[in-house]
Structures are given as structure tokens and as C-alpha cells.
UniProtKB/TrEMBL annotation:
One of its GO terms (biological process) is proteolysis. It holds the Pfam family Peptidase_S9. Residues 1-22 form the signal peptide. It comes from the Bacteria. Gene3D superfamilies: alpha/beta hydrolase (3.40.50.1820), TolB, C-terminal domain (2.120.10.30). This is S9 family peptidase. It comes from Caulobacter mirabilis.
Length: 676
């Protein structure tokens, strides 16, 4: 039931290794944490409890690859691997509503053509439930009343649009229920009956249509403007009479409202003037609204249900850190609870609400237990035009003797830029922050304009501002860190993935004297070719992209795209650049990295280019992630002067290729010889 209206418009750009012996710590510094501990497979992660409460599940390594394991809830030690993926780690899975199957999606080599698979818990038999080539499945809904059926969308008929089917989990049969020619998403009720569909207009707004007997009505029953395009239906109540929305019409911060579907009347049930409502809870048993969360600097919950509030207060008294309820039984009598202490590895518990007992299931990265991890500090930074940029600063442990949030002396710093750009950085354990701070760097992550969660005006203020005001925000944050004595102005690197990779290229081309070096992971170099090569299932969202980066159908839009593309300013690059790319990336094609590397090569400008033939938009296989980070670490050591664990044999087992520039990254050429 709790599925958001699915749309292609929203896009956000993220063998259990035996730890190497930690390098001895320099005087006054914590021990060097091995990359394998920080970026290798966790021992266990992603715990869930089956809807009927009989089973526990989690993802854990099997022969070095993350697979789904299942155990009786009464005996977690009796876990067995239910899946047998040998190459691509499983990162998303869930239980069938009848608790008979574990369901998961996976792609091939990072191509994001996700297929749906199911494993029968009783027999161990696995089925491919959407057995199509070059097809991307999306979930349309689950039901507590029709437990053996799912609603799924597949784009095997037309890659641009997802047709919807009822999937019978017992037989595998797919029954067509909605033929889609132009709708970005659908909304179903508890009986899996499609009752609504959305269509993105050319001006970026969205129209919502009632669906009757599998057909959308001719006229929308409501519409939202481009400014409010993060408004959208969330789910129907179990009785189908109430439709819940995330709503920004008439307000800046997103609220949760309930609409009487017959009369159209709206009632606000959750809102905050601090930030968007980030999450909402309904009881899976009673369907009663239980509370909501807001994430400004940190996540804050408001519980309106007395029993839920009592239990959350109890959990808060026993667990120290950011607490989340990640899975619940249909009876709502047992919860899976995760706690993130930030300066210790996260832990997962089973909470029995009847007996009030809390049982630890596992610690995800036990090798970090007892190690010195750095604290993360939320900070508010003012942009030059007065916007508040919620940001997160991590200093190396021991560098801030008086605890005032400033190091004892300015440090080399890495500006770590999040992808999206319609996403956000949040408070919590962050592997890059821990890794880089352990190496001696201050790390700063900035929610620049366009980041989500801070109201629609903040998001919309990014339109047309790629490489302009969005980049100004990043520069303003660096200036703040330098003026505060946090960052050494001569030793600031910029790094990030996707939009963060683009921001890195912008940093080295538009402001070539600001940064000492850059690390670009799957970042676009040319906004026009980026737009031209978006995957076909993003068709409905192209109007949003035209608002963001320019409309290539007009001379003005084409000029904007050209002006804001780093490829047009390659001559300005004068600082070291490291580029990482997945060959199968459907969002930012390999050609985006190829073309800027070729341009730099032609002009004799040094660049190191790392390519993984079995990865897509980011590096999912830990062995590849570790390999790239090994290169990054020695690259940053040369640029910024921090500490580094030698590359050593970190490239072994990875598929790393270096088409150009191995000689510019310390130790890379030598390490590559060990992979052959």
C-alpha cells in the first residue's frame, strides 16, 4: 500500500574482505583504518521481518557476494542463504505479503534494467518473475488483502512507458491491467485496483487523472504547477476512501494531507515550518496515522499515536544514536530497529512491543567496533544571497582539542558534493567522511540549492543555475571553512558522484584556482549530450530537465547548455583530475567521461581515467569500489598531503581498467601490473 506514485521524472544520483593490518598511527593520530573495513561487504545489513512475523531476513555475503539470508524469527542463528547471486550484489529486496517468498531486484553490470526475482522460502526454488530482456521493472503496489499478488510495471513493450500487470506470485502469471501510453506513474488501492495516473506536462507541471476500469479519464481531476511538482499522492487508506498526499500547494514546506476521495476535501495531518515532512507512519494493523518525521539538521519524529510514542521513547532511552524503524509485522507487534551512533558501527535490533524486549541481531561492521571514528557536525552556512545551506562537517579525530568545532590549525579539506542534484546530505555515519577524516582531512558536505527537504523554493532556486548559483553555494561553503580556520585555502579538493562529479568538473574549469584537485565519479561533461542520451524511461521527466539545464529545442536553451558544460572550458584545467566511470551507466553514459578525457589528452592536460566494464552509475561491487578508492586515496595524498594506505593488492579481483593517465596517479601503474 505504501508506495509513492511512481514517476520517471525524479532522479537521484551511491568476498567479505579480510582487513589488512592497520598501518601504525602517527603521533597523535588514530590508527589508519583499512579500506577493506570501510568499503568491503558488511557482515550483515538490511534486516527485515516477514509480515507474519515468522521469519527474519538480511543481506550478507555468500562466497563474497551479498545475498539474502533467512532465519526463523525464534532462532536467528539458523540462517540460510536463499539466493545465489555470484556477480552482482543484491541491494534491494522485500517480503511477499503472504510471507511465502523473498523478492529481490537486480540488474546486469549496472545497466539498471532491473528484473524481479522471487525465492520460495519453503523450497528454495527461485523464479524470474519478469523474464524480459532490456526491461526495467518498477513496483506498483502490494496488498494486505491480496497477499499472493503484486502490481508491477514493465517497459518491455515500449521502453519509454511502463505497462502495469497483476503478478500472481504462486503461478508467475502476469495479467495486464493498464496499457500505458504517456503516463509517468499510477496509483493503486489496497485491492491493487489502479485508480489514478499522472502525466507530466511540457511545462513541467503534473496532471492527475482518475482511472476507471483500466482507462484514464479525459480530464485531470487535479493538477499541480511546475513549482509544486514534488506534490503527489502517496497511498490510499485501506478502505479506499482517503487518498494521502505529499502537498506543497499553498505552502513552501511539504506537508502530508488527507483527501476525501469522493468529495475532494483536504485535511492537513502533518506539517512543519522547519523543513519538508520526510517520513510518515501508519499502523499496518489499524491503518491509523501514527506520526511523522522532519529532517532539518537531524531527523526529528513527532508521534501522534500514544502507544507508538511510548515505544519510541523507550527505544530512545536504550539506544544512543539516530533510530529508525525499518520493518514491521502486519500485527505491528514486532519491529526491526536500526540505530546509527555515527561514531560507532550501526546495529540492528528486534523489538517486541508486547514484552518491551530489545534483542540485538547484529552489528553491520563489527571490525569498526572500538575503533576511533570521527564525529559529524551539522552546520548552517549562509550563501552570498542569504540562503541557509544545511551542511555537515567532519574533522579528523583529535584535531579539535577544545571541542569548539574548529580544528587546532587549518587542515586540508575535501568538499564532498552529493549527486542528484535533487537529493540531500543527511546526518549519520558516512563512509566517505570517516575514510577521509581518518586520512587527515576535514570533510564538508553541502546541501546546495536544489537539494531536497528544505522546501520547494529552495529546490526551484536551482533551475537554470547549474555551474552558476549552485556552484556559488559550494564556493561560499569553502570560503566559510577557510575563514573559520577549518580549511587550508591551498589544500581544498572537490569530489563527488553524478551531479557531484559534474560539480567537480565545474570546479576545475569555472573556478580553476579554487581547488587543489578533483575526483569526478560518473559526472557529465556536456549537458547537451547528457540530455540526448538519457534512458528512454526518463521521457516523462524531460520537461523537468529542460527547466534545470536548458531546453535544447531553443537557441537560448542550447546556448545555456553549452555555456554551463565543462567540456567547453577544458583549457582552464590546471589542477590534477581523477575520473571514475562505469561502462554500463545508463544515466551518465561512458561517452561523458570519454569526451572530456579525449579533449584533455589532445591539449596535453594530465588526467587519470579509471573505467570499470561491469559497473554502471557508481560502483556496486565492493572489490571495484575499494579499487577506485585506493587510487583516490593516493591521488589525494599527493595533492593534499594527508595519510594513505598503499594501493598494494587492492586492485586484485577488480575489473579496473585505466584507459589513460595511470602515470599521473602515484603507484597506480605498478599496482596495475599485479592485476594481470
Amino acid at each position: 500500500m505504501r508506495y509513492l506514485l511512481l514517476t520517471a521524472a525524479a532522479v537521484a544520483f551511491g568476498v567479505a574482505a579480510v582487513p589488512a593490518l592497520a598501518a601504525p598511527a602517527a603521533s597523535g593520530q588514530p590508527e589508519l583504518l583499512p579500506r577493506s573495513v570501510l568499503f568491503g561487504n558488511p557482515t550483515k545489513a538490511g534486516a527485515r521481518i516477514s509480515p507474519d512475523g515468522k521469519w527474519l531476513s538480511w543481506i550478507a555475503p555468500k562466497d563474497g557476494v551479498m545475498n539474502v539470508w533467512v532465519a526463523p524469527a525464534v532462532d536467528p542463528s539458523a540462517a540460510k542463504a536463499m539466493t545465489n547471486e555470484t556477480k552482482r550484489p543484491i541491494r534491494q529486496y522485500f517480503w511477499s505479503p503472504d510471507s511465502a517468498m523473498v523478492l529481490f531486484i537486480n540488474d546486469k553490470g549496472g545497466d539498471e534494467n532491473f528484473l524481479l526475482y522471487g525465492v520460495d522460502v519453503a523450497t528454495g526454488a527461485q523464479k524470474t518473475l519478469t523474464p524480459f530482456e532490456k526491461t526495467r521493472v518498477i513496483m506498483g503496489g502490494t496488498s494486505r488483502d491480496r497477499k499472493d499478488t503484486l502490481l508491477v510495471g514493465v517497459n518491455n513493450r515500449d521502453a519509454k512507458w511502463h505497462d502495469y500487470y497483476e503478478l500472481n506470485l504462486k503461478t508467475g502469471d502476469l495479467k495486464p491491467v493498464f496499457h500505458n501510453d504517456g503516463f509517468s506513474g499510477v496509483l493503486a488501492d489496497e485491492q491493487l485496483k489502479i485508480r489514478g495516473a499522472s502525466k507530466v506536462r511540457d511545462d513541467g507541471g503534473v496532471d492527475y487523472y482518475r482511472v476507471v476500469d483500466g482507462k484514464a479519464e479525459a480530464q485531470p481531476f487535479t493538477s499541480v504547477s511546475f513549482v509544486d511538482n514534488n506534490t503527489g499522492p502517496m497511498a490510499f487508506s485501506r478502505d479506499g476512501k482517503t487518498l494521502y498526499w505529499t502537498e506543497t500547494r499553498g505552502r513552501d514546506k511539504a506537508a502530508v494531507v488527507a483527501q476525501d476521495y469522493a468529495s475532494g476535501k483536504f485535511t492537513t495531518i502533518a506539517e512543519s515550518d522547519k523543513a519538508d515532512v520526510a517520513g510518515a507512519l501508519w499502523s499496518p494493523k489499524t491503518d491509523r496515522f501514527q506520526g511523522f518525521s522532519v529532517n532539518y539538521l537531524k531527523t526529528e519524529w513527532t508521534l501522534t499515536d500514544p502507544a507508538a510514542k511510548t515505544d519510541m521513547d523507550l527505544l530512545s532511552s536504550k539506544l544512543k544514536g539516530e533510530i529508525g524503524v525499518t520493518s514491521r509485522t502486519d500485527e505491528d507487534d514486532r519491529w526491526i530497529v536500526a540505530v546509527d551512533p555515527v561514531t560507532a558501527p550501526s546495529a540492528t535490533y528486534l523489538f517486541d512491543r508486547k514484552t518491551k524486549t530489545l534483542t540485538q541481531l547484529f552489528v553491520s561492521r563489527p571490525a569498526l567496533t572500538g575503533k576511533t571514528l570521527a564525529a559529524m557536525r551539522p552546520v548552517e552556512i549562509k550563501s552570498r544571497d542569504g540562503k541557509t545551506l544545511v551542511s555537515y562537517l567532519t574533522l579528523p579525530a583529535g584535531s579539535d582539542a577544545d571541542g569548539d568545532g574548529r580544528p587546532d590549525k587549518p587542515l586540508p579539506m575535501v568538499l564532498n558534493v552529493h549527486g542528484g542534484p535533487w537529493a540531500r546530505d543527511s546526518y549519520g555515519y558516512n563512509s566517505w567522511h570517516q575514510w577521509l577524516s581518518n586520512r587527515g582531512y576535514a570533510v564538508l558536505s553541502v546541501n546546495y540549492r536544489g537539494s531536497t527537504g528544505f522546501g520547494k523554493a529552495f529546490v526551484r532556486s536551482s533551475d537554470g543555475e547549474w555551474a552558476a548559483k549552485m556552484h556559488d553555494d559550494l564556493i561560499d561553503a569553502v570560503d566559510w571553512a577557510e575563514k573559520a580556520g577549518i580549511a587550508d585555502p591551498k589544500k581544498v579538493a572537490i569530489a563527488g558522484g553524478s551531479y557531484g562529479g559534474y560539480a567537480t568538473l565545474v570546479g576545475l574549469t569555472f573556478t580553476p584556482d579554487k581547488f587543489a584537485c578533483g575526483v569526478d565519479i560518473v559526472g557529465p561533461s556536456n549537458l547537451k549530450t547528457l540530455y540526448d542520451t538519457f534512458p528512454p524511461y526518463w521521457t516523462s521527466g524531460l520537461s523537468l530537465w529542460r527547466k534545470a539545464i536548458g531546453d535544447p529545442r531553443t537557441p537560448e536553451g542550447l546556448k545555456l547548455m553549452q555555456d554551463r558544460s565543462p567540456i567547453t572550458r577544458v583549457d582552464a584545467i590546471k589542477k590534477p583530475l581523477l575520473i571514475g566511470q562505469g561502462a554500463n551507466d545508463p544515466r551518465v553514459k561512458q561517452s561523458e567521461s570519454d569526451q572530456i578525457v579525449a579533449a584533455m589528452k589532445a591539449k596535453g592536460i594530465p588526467v587519470t581515467y579509471v573505467l570499470f566494464p561491469d559497473e554502471g552509475h557508481g560502483f556496486a561491487r565492493p572489490v571495484n569500489n575499494i579499487a577506485f578508492n585506493a587510487v583516490t586515496e593516493t591521488f589525494l595524498e599527493k595533492c593534499l598531503g594527508g595519510r594513505a594506505e598503499p594501493i598494494g593488492d587492492s586492485l586484485k579481483g577488480s575489473t579496473i581498467q585505466v584507459p589513460h593517465g595511470a602515470e599521473y596517479a602515484p603507484g597506480l601503474a605498478e599496482a596495475l601490473k599485479t592485476t594481470k
